[in-house]
## 1
Amino acid sequence: MNLETIRHSTSHVLAAAVKRLYPKVKLGIGPAIEDGFYYDFGDLNIKEEDLESIEKEMRKIIAKDEKFIQKLISRKEAEKILRNEPYKLDLLKDLDDDKISFYYTGEFFDLCKGPHIKSTKEIKAFKLTKLAGAYWRGDSENDMLQRIYGIAFESEKELKEHLRLLEEAEKRNHIKLGKELDLFVFSDVVGKGLPLLTPKGTIIKRILERFIEDEEIKRGYQYTETPVLAKSDLYKISGHLDHYRESMFVFEANGEEMVLRPMTCPHQFMIYKSKLRSYKDLPIRYAEIADLFRNEQSGELHGLIRIRQFSLADAHIICMPEQLEKEFEDVLNLIKYVMKTLGFKNYWYRFSKWDPKNKKKYIDNPKAWDISQKTMKKILDKLKLEYIEADDEAAFYGPKLDIQMKNVYGKEDTIFTVQIDFALPERFDMTYEGEDGRKHRPMIIHRSSIGCLERTMAMLIEHYAGAFPLWLSPIQVRIMNLTDRNIKFCEKIAKELEKNGIRVETDYSKETMNKKVRNAQLQKIPYMITIGDKEEEKGTLAVRTRNGNVRFGIRPEDLIKEISEKVENKDAD
Amino acid sequence: MNLETIRHSTSHVLAAAVKRLYPKVKLGIGPAIEDGFYYDFGDLNIKEEDLESIEKEMRKIIAKDEKFIQKLISRKEAEKILRNEPYKLDLLKDLDDDKISFYYTGEFFDLCKGPHIKSTKEIKAFKLTKLAGAYWRGDSENDMLQRIYGIAFESEKELKEHLRLLEEAEKRNHIKLGKELDLFVFSDVVGKGLPLLTPKGTIIKRILERFIEDEEIKRGYQYTETPVLAKSDLYKISGHLDHYRESMFVFEANGEEMVLRPMTCPHQFMIYKSKLRSYKDLPIRYAEIADLFRNEQSGELHGLIRIRQFSLADAHIICMPEQLEKEFEDVLNLIKYVMKTLGFKNYWYRFSKWDPKNKKKYIDNPKAWDISQKTMKKILDKLKLEYIEADDEAAFYGPKLDIQMKNVYGKEDTIFTVQIDFALPERFDMTYEGEDGRKHRPMIIHRSSIGCLERTMAMLIEHYAGAFPLWLSPIQVRIMNLTDRNIKFCEKIAKELEKNGIRVETDYSKETMNKKVRNAQLQKIPYMITIGDKEEEKGTLAVRTRNGNVRFGIRPEDLIKEISEKVENKDAD
């Protein structure tokens, strides 16, 4: 049996139940989606707690084992039947069939092509999950409808397993953990999609930043620092203002149109163009931890993943065509190294190519497409990477390679992108003097290495469920005293650790030691040191780790060595 | 004799000469300024090269030894005399004297109160220096006039000395050196006041950033990272939108009024307010290398000193009133340490206090003013700092301390500022729970430690004339080969140095060794290594330093040790 058919049929049962309970509602659409279905209703205004009674009504309909019956009806008749359903009438206009397909289930009917299950008894396991608002046809100019989401599976067992996984994922939700671990906050007066990193969140970001800066410098990148503000003229040249304007913050100041940059490339190109460049200077690898801005719709915003200001570890490699292969390979090796260091294992590559027939979408330069796509493929094969090819999904200016990962909810996300670009060098008239003394066009690789730092932080929070590897932990050690007598010795140990670059916190509260340890565990702190009279006497420490391991009689210098080595090696723990 | 009087009188002679050569010009104003004078003219359109003939005409007038004669004239008569001088008529309106004062010099006359020298022979040494545009009365709604600048001194000797100093300063000009040393560029399509740091400039900025971050963390600061974009609501609360709007970038997006932040404080306050705070948490020292924006007038922009986007090493110390003294002392100690590390020696403090009588300008809280001013003074005296007191120059919310330095042109600049603030905690309703279980108001210290990084870079460039101390040098070592045979060995040495974190550049060009060394010296590179067959044979290096010192037979490991130690100690060279 087709699960999608079951899910779509369940949405009909949902609509039937809602119609019974709220006869005045107007029907929108009710498709199957991943794991379930939804249905949109006009003139409905219910609350989450009402979902229970709707579910009950649905179970009644299912118990009656109603049949799904298709009827083909003339357009005129259909218009009559749907006279009180404005959204359905709107949909009817788009159909150019002679006979209009309807599905009947008991007293309920719906404009629908099917297919459907035979009868409601085939629905074995479903649950309504949440309410949301949705514009009719997704257009904010239209009516706002109320959307009811549900899930449906072939068996109760599968449904329960799904709910269990969801619950597991929910524990890893970076928004929830971000609050619990005090990593970032939002503020109504600052605005939506503009996270404020607290001291702990800032530590993680700074470590990632310095890590990637140092690593890239070692690999021959040169860092630049360019302004986030620019005249819109810059983005007229790049073409972004034409293609991308509505996602940009554009405004006027001092009689000039200004933008908050959505990209780093044109800024770095201006540095390239500030001097004459020779083939001897190439490749030039400009990197920048660049603050970028996207005017995302407020409904699209999500935690640290979709935000309006973010820091991208961006770079542009400007090279001769004959250098492209090596540079591209080096980029992939850097990305592999970064993924390994962060501890991300389950990822794959998506290689997006052009469609030579789609002349409108792509720059018409078959030779350049050929070179760049062949280069990408060659290196992917050479490095034996696991990749999927996707036709007609390239950027307009060249092929791209996305690094894909599943998030904790099982949803596929792109975390980094690498693109080969032969169009912008043309638009910006970028050149280099070749060995022949003539001017040539360079090619450009646009790439990230560690992605948008905020998004990567979100992925790390979810991946590790907040229990970051030692080198990334905002607090690496918490020191707790058994009695007030021990505070002085605790302070001495804290100072010694700090002198060695270890991030330490102390807890001298009046709680019991058990409670203190529990609190530290909830904060997912890697090392917990407890100090009582016994420890003080011997000058050693009792050391607990996050995973429950307890050791006694550890000498401070040995602990410092252990921690320093793990940090140095960036152990994934 | 009063030099100011000589300078102002010279401006009359300038106007007389211009009137002779360009009879249609309209007279603006002609005051004495530091080192000289200027005069503004309407309906004048000359070029720099015309200044010579004007100077010649001035010398003729001076040679004739014309007297300066004051005449007091009735308003009616004055209006008649000035009927063709619209700007002078405009000035006349502002005068409420019965008799209007004019000064005559030969056929030239000017609406002027004086005083003046007796006759033109007292003008011993002057020179016209440059042309500029200036709006009448400094208002961009008014006519644009042409301004001629000149300098004047009591003797030719002093004039020459001044020109020599100017020339010296010009060699240190950070805009000129920034170009020569390839530290930053501007781009017309990016816009005015928005510098792009090249790889070399970015190295300096990153070193300063990491230096101050690490130092502040050691001293108990916690870093935050907050967005540069915010709803204007945030700045309504702080009061900036009312007082400061025209210097801010304000625009609309998604139906909300947004700003590019001019300050960090309200953002960090939102983090403070995201949790309940107890007296046990205080002091909280939030630091951030914060990108800030000021919509400076385009005429105000200057190199890296006055720009529209800059990075301020900002911090806000939120503390209990009883903690203020210690915190303020720690801030001053940090600043002293930073100044010493940067090698800045000639600086002093300017302590700006309120005026209790000026009720409009200041928050009316005499007790808070008293505490905070006394605290400032106490610490300044305790630390035996050299400071100047300035009445009625505080910020509206509290007293401030500016750290003042003379730039290479002898002009006084503020490089950092420390303020005590008892007003914003009120406006933002910031509280902490005291030991008594009640809510209390904290006090706040606003401070910088290393200032605006771009401005500090400009100061460093000018202070060191581009010959940065080793730890700040974008390139620390340049390796040059005598013959192509030696390239391989050069590369080996370069790799070894780089592995030890030393920033190396190579020059394998076909130039002579002398030329190569000269090029490296022009780039002010601290260490130059030259390698020929002899060096390669022995495995040692010939090492030159910027100051002309040459040593032979240096072992690579010894050089690495020498450089590493100097960098580690941040030697000022």
## 2
Amino acid sequence: MKLTKTLPVVVALIALPTLALAQEADVTPPNEEIGYIFTTFMFLVTGFLVMWMGAGFSMLEAGLVRSKNVAMQSLKNVSLFAIAAIMYYLIGYNLMYPGDGWTITNVLGAFSPAVMEPVGGSPDTDLTYASVGSDFFFQLMFCATTASIVSGTLAERIKLWPFLIFTVVLTGLIYPIQASWKWGGGFLDANYGFLDFAGSTVVHSVGGWAALAGALILGPRIGKYKDGKTVPMPGSNLTLATLGTFILWLGWFGFNGGSQLYMDTAGNVADISRIFANTNTAAAGGAIAALILTQLLYKKPDITMVLNGALAGLVSITAEPLTPGLGAATLIGAVGGVLVVLAVPFLDKLKIDDVVGAIPVHLVCGIWGTIAVVLTNSDATLGGQLISIAIVGIFTFVVSAVVWLILKATMGIRVPEEDEINGLDMAELGMEAYPEFTKG
Amino acid sequence: MKLTKTLPVVVALIALPTLALAQEADVTPPNEEIGYIFTTFMFLVTGFLVMWMGAGFSMLEAGLVRSKNVAMQSLKNVSLFAIAAIMYYLIGYNLMYPGDGWTITNVLGAFSPAVMEPVGGSPDTDLTYASVGSDFFFQLMFCATTASIVSGTLAERIKLWPFLIFTVVLTGLIYPIQASWKWGGGFLDANYGFLDFAGSTVVHSVGGWAALAGALILGPRIGKYKDGKTVPMPGSNLTLATLGTFILWLGWFGFNGGSQLYMDTAGNVADISRIFANTNTAAAGGAIAALILTQLLYKKPDITMVLNGALAGLVSITAEPLTPGLGAATLIGAVGGVLVVLAVPFLDKLKIDDVVGAIPVHLVCGIWGTIAVVLTNSDATLGGQLISIAIVGIFTFVVSAVVWLILKATMGIRVPEEDEINGLDMAELGMEAYPEFTKG
Amino acid sequence: MKLTKTLPVVVALIALPTLALAQEADVTPPNEEIGYIFTTFMFLVTGFLVMWMGAGFSMLEAGLVRSKNVAMQSLKNVSLFAIAAIMYYLIGYNLMYPGDGWTITNVLGAFSPAVMEPVGGSPDTDLTYASVGSDFFFQLMFCATTASIVSGTLAERIKLWPFLIFTVVLTGLIYPIQASWKWGGGFLDANYGFLDFAGSTVVHSVGGWAALAGALILGPRIGKYKDGKTVPMPGSNLTLATLGTFILWLGWFGFNGGSQLYMDTAGNVADISRIFANTNTAAAGGAIAALILTQLLYKKPDITMVLNGALAGLVSITAEPLTPGLGAATLIGAVGGVLVVLAVPFLDKLKIDDVVGAIPVHLVCGIWGTIAVVLTNSDATLGGQLISIAIVGIFTFVVSAVVWLILKATMGIRVPEEDEINGLDMAELGMEAYPEFTKG
């Protein structure tokens, strides 16, 4: 690893100035086919990292629920990932990219399964971007991530099948429709100048809104709020929660890095590098902020807050991981960490029971991250960001609420009281996650 | 992640037609050295993904055995991986690729350790493929995977050292010899037109046959079959099993994707993308099929079946992950999921005790996946596939059985009854995996 | 995966000869920009693998401490990773590469935060290496790894905040200063011909020395050494320890492979491939050596020794993963595995309490690996290696000891006896890692 670096040591930007953006170098790739291979392979690598986030959510949630619900929570996470894969193939992908111009005709025509390019490539393939298969693979993982967010909030009391049906609607319709408004060339992109690089709003707040609607309609767990007090229900396995956080941290490099969408030039790969470094430092900022703040507030650090603080930092930098310098990225993440520590008890005050803290992490910090774009990217306007946050939020919350209410009215969404007390594992699955270990 | 996709929305193929294959574009790479770098790096990335599957098997198996055998199961998984690394280096690699033409002379001459190209590259290196080191690294991981399959079936009752000696034979001789028949240019490839893209037969069914031979000779666990009934022996840690499944799912992108063997042209990288997408959707199909089927059969979903269903989907698509469309791949995986749900109780009826369900997943679905090649790839013939499955199966089963019988006759392969009841951890290792936790 | 390999089967080198090194092919990359993209992307991929090692250390340590300290150990691992990220950004990176020529003026001038290249790339960027962001990202992970090593040794008795303050000094000052002597073009590199490819000394022994200084000053855990005997304190979760080992094994491909620093030519990517293969086989050698040796010494294999044996093999090959052949690499790793098995009881004889065995693995094998460079790389001299090991060791040990002593004198570094007995989780965090599981 010997390398004498001769780069000039320059003065750094730690604060949060609006960076003077260098003009995007007007470079054409050295060779179209090579650029195509680079970008396609980049999507595969960043795509498998985002896929890995599915495991991260599963471990995080399994660690933060009580042991009597762990097997069910694991089953939900595997199943929702599989459902997302199938629904995004059947409808979502084409619905999200409704072709040349975002019109009603195009959208209606877009209800069709995804199709990849033929085997062996076609001689007349357009080589300016990436292979369809790689783009589909990458985009699918974002859809799956959105669904993963919901499962944690509603844990320990929701019935399996209504949850899975909601996931069908979320991944097949809700996510792709609103995502198309920004990433499919729709009106948020075209008319409001909405900037959301990798999805603080389009992915994370959407998952958060859907979870919030569910939490309100489902109600809190039995015994969670008693005599005006919040009863702590500690997670059963903090090493799993730690593992889940590390997995998500790792996967996020793919989430944000791949969203550069091109790796065909030196400028693009340098941008992806900035994004990796910023993503990492934002997570660090969030974790440290939560560590210090919980020490100050409660005289003891809180590990679940530190884990959620890291995730909060990651969500916060997701809307704009490219333009901030390392210092700005750290601070954006740190604000996220602070927000989570404040939002968790605030939600409890409202008696909104979010088992794993997904709403503070993904919704609150998703909003913060989307607003923070204006701090470092002069192309964004506060108005455009706020109105886009609102439109996406209202759409997702209302549609989700309608779906939850229909499910509640038809098949019911909550397990019987007795099943909730005994745990979903025995009641709904008939097996336990840790059958040989006595509960304390 | 803004991108207005302007690809025409075309009609999809959901059913299972034999796709009219596009002619492989007759492209030479834009530059030989660049193609060499691309392919070599691709092998390193996909190779480390397959290496990661070793961790996946370890977690899956540790989660599915009872807590008294968990440390031993972990030790076996680490050790077998290390043994595979050394045996494949010492003999396996050269034996699998016995040089120019598969003749007895070549095969006998192939008993020699693997050697990588010199440091710094050689000026006269052939740049049409990839570096020897990367090819060795990638192929080694397939050999290790084969060994991982066996350990799960025989868990909880086999002695450590005979198991490891079997692993020496499997990774040094059995795997590479039969693999050379297909991938080393041997007679299955040359004379039978056998198609097995990434090893439904060559890797997965081989692991399954070796496991089956072992299971028959070793016999079931004490108390597993009593009064004509199968006694459930639930796994001790379903979150570990879930984690293992996610790891395997992730690693499989490397397993199938890297088996394209070239990433030097747009056509090849587009093919690898198709393979990633198909691999993912096949796993999803298998998981969903098992979820629905267990709900219908048993009125409750079975999480271990869903996990094995995902793996079944992955094994099923492995013989041909390239030619199917997304719909066909989903259905091929779904059939795998159904087969697993049916095969597990069927094996129990035969009193073949497979602790983790490796035989249903890897052998049954390995066969199914190999047959399914004919559904989407017109180069495959049902006859060629069936005869190749049979030849590989008979060879592996017979040789494995002979080795198991020799081990049984000489050193014994089964732990004493008392040790089995007390658990292998205390008996063979003198330490427990979870020493501080009371058994229920 | 069909491929008829026609490479000539050549005679292998199993022993440990000094390989006649092929002259580094004097190749210029086919195109500067393409080489830049290759190397930059390589840093991102290998960098995220090294980041993943942070999770590996966390799992390994959480598995090897007793359950009453698991949450705290997890918190320490997440926090130290975050601290490393911030300190390396604020000071470490520029301090490690103090510009053109390693002079006091340059070093003093180097106290400044890291800065990445502008967004979109600059038209006048130097394209002969890689993007600054990717280099920063990759190098940061080495700094974080160094800090991860310390936390394991000092587990179960050190206070959280002093440990974190030490981490600040280690990652901001100690690590980058000594690393600059070799990798920043300092005197060990320039005057002593010191060779340490990926950091057996610069990373691993440094972590080990810092841990040793801490262990001596902190003292052993209560009850660890009683009446002249070592009391075993078995880890609470061996599957987590196994998982951690697999994660570290995987991450090490990035650690060693990325240290090639260039992937712009066929020769460089072929070298990276050799490194991957050698790294893997060294780990295998270490694991097998520990397996056999513990069986011979204790009549039972010891799984924690086998896990540490694999890690020992990895540390041992880190100083020179390129020049050995596969056989030599296996043996270098195997010697590491033997050293660990012998060093663990030796440390106990000295009453140095190293909870996870980090000193045997990272310090002892770090020294061995650095010496072993002379066996296969004729550019290294035994004298140059030994003096460099000594200089780095003395510097790190002395400075670390001073910091530990200051911390001890000011805020105290050890938890009260009662807290240690009850466990750090309840005492310092007020929460347990596994609250629902009764301790046996």
## 3
Amino acid sequence: MNIGELKEYTRDIYHLSRISALLGWDQETCMPSRAIEERGDQIALIQGLIHDRLTHETVGSSLGRLADAPLSDLDRRFAAKLKRDYDRSTRLPKALVTGLAKAASSAQAAWARARENNDWSLFEPHLETIISLIIEKAEAIGYEGHVYDALIDEYEPGMTVETLEQLLVGQAPALSGLVKRIAEKPAPDDSFLQQPYDTGKQEAFSRFILKEFGFPLDRGRLDVTAHPFTTSLGADDVRITTRYLPGFFNSAIFGTIHEAGHGFYELGFGDDIRGTILAEGASLGMHESQSRTWENLIGRSRGFWERYYPKLQQLFPENLAGVGLESFYKAVNKVERSFIRVEADEVTYNLHIILRYMLEKSLVAGQIPVRDLPEAWNMLCTEYFGMTPTSFREGVLQDIHWSMGAVGYFPTYALGNLIASQLASVMEKSLGSMNELVKSGEFPRIHAWLHDNIHVHGAAATPGELITAISGKPLSVDPFMDYIGGKYTRLYSL
Amino acid sequence: MNIGELKEYTRDIYHLSRISALLGWDQETCMPSRAIEERGDQIALIQGLIHDRLTHETVGSSLGRLADAPLSDLDRRFAAKLKRDYDRSTRLPKALVTGLAKAASSAQAAWARARENNDWSLFEPHLETIISLIIEKAEAIGYEGHVYDALIDEYEPGMTVETLEQLLVGQAPALSGLVKRIAEKPAPDDSFLQQPYDTGKQEAFSRFILKEFGFPLDRGRLDVTAHPFTTSLGADDVRITTRYLPGFFNSAIFGTIHEAGHGFYELGFGDDIRGTILAEGASLGMHESQSRTWENLIGRSRGFWERYYPKLQQLFPENLAGVGLESFYKAVNKVERSFIRVEADEVTYNLHIILRYMLEKSLVAGQIPVRDLPEAWNMLCTEYFGMTPTSFREGVLQDIHWSMGAVGYFPTYALGNLIASQLASVMEKSLGSMNELVKSGEFPRIHAWLHDNIHVHGAAATPGELITAISGKPLSVDPFMDYIGGKYTRLYSL
């Protein structure tokens, strides 16, 4: 196949991945409970069709012939992306793929039981299997430096342990120190956030904010799920989800804003990559940078609540009548050492990730055996947070990722925070202070900047290339530490 | 492939057809408007995969070898069904299939415009194309008697013009006469059905009735669409839809009950055919018989309203406080000569179908040219109903079917009414009067009878075989005429 034929050939892969996304979305939002088994077969069938097309021998031979062909810049990007996908898929023996899927399926069930019963022993043998298969997977894919490089690369192309040590582990002492200094200050009152909030009004406020942002509901939807996510069912069909907790304000609104950030990315791919395998985010870290930009840099800014708190107070007088703007702003930015990652604030969040990164890296390098994982977890937790989990549930059993075989995924959450800050600092140079933009509702300008600089490129550039092109330097931890240091020094009068 | 391998091979076809159904269901219930074009590509891709698998040459050669193999009864049924699907698919040249799909796509758009503007000339050239392609299709498929036989067979296996003349055209004079006698009687008041009915309460009542029927919501859903339908996304995932009109009572509840009848059929296929190409209705007529049994024989019976009218009155006191049971029962069974099929009652309904059957049969036989269709429509309408449409909208342009290339489909609606009555008369012999069963809420017994006699077989038997096996004779018009004659003679004191 020549380049044109390859593009035509891979269009089916693009469509099948969206069809698979619909099967997944429907499963989480609509599907009747007893349909779960057959839905699994349906998804497996579509995934198999994608795999067969992607790994077809003519793809490999065509890519080989293309290596020396004169191609436009975009075609070269396309060929590089296809080669990456082809290589990652063909290097894994089918038995290993099936073995991992099967092991993950029972490990997930075991994890849910183990977590429910706070019984590590129920999960340990399953994680043993997963880790040994994951090591096999890394060896099959290949790597130059650390075995973990082969794993993180799946989610964050080009990322390595060498870089992560500097970006993640390097920031741990400073973050840990900041958390400690904050903990010495009086904690702001946030009890009014944990009260009954009418879920209908929560939804109304979430939809109002989406409208303010300009999220296009003729090209997407907002629905309810247990665990919010964003999924792309087509170039003009990007669906975000949230949940309305009856007793806690933060979850719905920040969840909605977070997913809207992912949604804008998926809706923003350029016309030249529409309907191709380049129509996806450059990496999970880059994707998370978009959700974090909207959730934290915009949604948790003072400007945002200066603009919208009066409306929120009107909507929930029973909860907020006596709460001033300053108290509310402090409450939604309360920093707290806690055991649970998904409830963590902006400051402690990356520490939770660093802990997981340290552990999973050591697991796949064979430096700690699975049986010692709970103890290793608790030690690191004590080191970073100054407190030790008293149950597996609030420790090693809290996250689903490892049971799914997703090793190398966690760092992308922290990278998202770093990327968001680094790119926002560039945006501010051209558009002015983010806080002022948000305060005056200049969401179209923010969105246009993100769109033109990031979204439009999809996966036609690597995250490293994008970051360097936009900010003039590789990803660094400084902009994030500057942002977090500045914001919380003011908030807590450090 | 041997029989076991063929069954395994066709499992993908089964799954792909359910995946296609999800794409369609989502399009009608959830999909954001601008996603329509890409959704079309997605459905076309899945349909193409089904077609490629079904028409693969090894299917043909394997079926050929099976002809003399010793097979179990069920395997023989499976092979016969696969051969039927294979033959129908392979006999159509790809150019004809594509041509029809393309012509139907523009004809549908033209039909919508024509109907909106009441302008036949906008649709006429498109219908010309459709009819000439449909004739080509019939010739490619082949037939022994009438050219129309090749078309009706797609929807109603084994049905022929010869039989339809007797079952449909034969009943026209008697039906027409009954309608005339009813029209001479005073019309019951049904103005209270055409009033504002709170749509939330309409939904509550619809869901209540589904629960009374035992429709399993862990294996299905009820959603809202513009044009209600039922679709099967898996053996344990059958979704029905309805609509809540704010100013008309009948639509939601009878729509829900009708679709529930279709839903029970799809949910009832036996374990031995689960996940195979036999897991579908025996024919569209047989399917419609199930929806009509629930909608008309159950939902429009006196027993049903004796049981539920008090509850309905409580729910809608503003509409029904002063309306007695007898008045309500008469109103939901009001017989009225009207131009529009989808609003027709039990008595006039089949006349609308007979009219369409006569016309489409003549069209494909070349006995009337497309340009004369409006006049032919109006003449038949005058003959059957004693009144002539004054616009194309309430005449020849009212239905979407022909624009979709669905010729041979209409008769299945009328056949559904005949089959429902014939099978119900057998059921009554073993379970007692339907009216009494319904009145005392014996829905599990009715459902079990339909399940054990009809649903469980899926497409493992032809409709003709099923009807003869259950009732001891082929389909006849008498049970339907007996039912309709008896019910409306009492209702209108004829």
